[in-house]
């Protein structure tokens, strides 16, 4: 059975509920997708230690708002993030926030400078970065969320 990063856990036609983790820096949100054990929470914890805010861990709502998505934590898990081998940790959180980028830890990158791909869900285009075999460093993702890509963003 193959892994589907975009499998939704809701039948709501205007939003998605995905297995993932999300963080934010300022008003830019990063959705981290990948199979269980791929390092979503570990990467988010590193980013939180560098100043990011948690949006949600394990499940993330993507609400369609105009031409984009906003990331939102399900109420039952707000302010909690899993640290494997330690347990659930409390974390400051910010929700909802606009989705700026998606890092998919199940997508393979075979070049040094990968291209951002796009996927359309519910009529909304999502910018997706590949996350394996080398997961981008937390510090680099922080800079991306603060400043964007030099050659892609305006």
Explained architecture:
The chain is mostly beta strands. It has one domain: P-loop containing nucleotide triphosphate hydrolases (Rossmann fold), CATH 3.40.50. The protein has two helices and nine strands. The strands form two sheets. It has a five-stranded mixed β-barrel. Strands 5-6 form a two-stranded antiparallel ribbon. Helix 1 packs across helix 2. The longest helix has 10 residues.
Widest sheet, order of strands: 1-2-7-4-3
What's the overall average pLDDT, rounded? 93
How many structurally independent domains? Answer: 1
End-to-end distance:
40 Å
What CATH architecture would you give?
Answer: 3-Layer(aba) Sandwich
Comma- or semicolon-separated keywords:
single chain; 154 residues; mainly beta; Rossmann fold; five-stranded mixed barrel; 9 strands; 13% helix
Give the topology.
Layout: E1 15-25, E2 28-33, H1 40-49, E3 53-65, E4 68-72, E5 80-83, E6 87-90, E7 97-108, E8 117-121, E9 124-132, H2 138-147
Parallel strand pairs: 2-7, 7-9
Antiparallel strand pairs: 1-2, 1-3, 3-4, 4-7, 5-6, 8-9
Helix pairs in contact: 1-2
In short:
Helix content is 13%, strand content 45%.
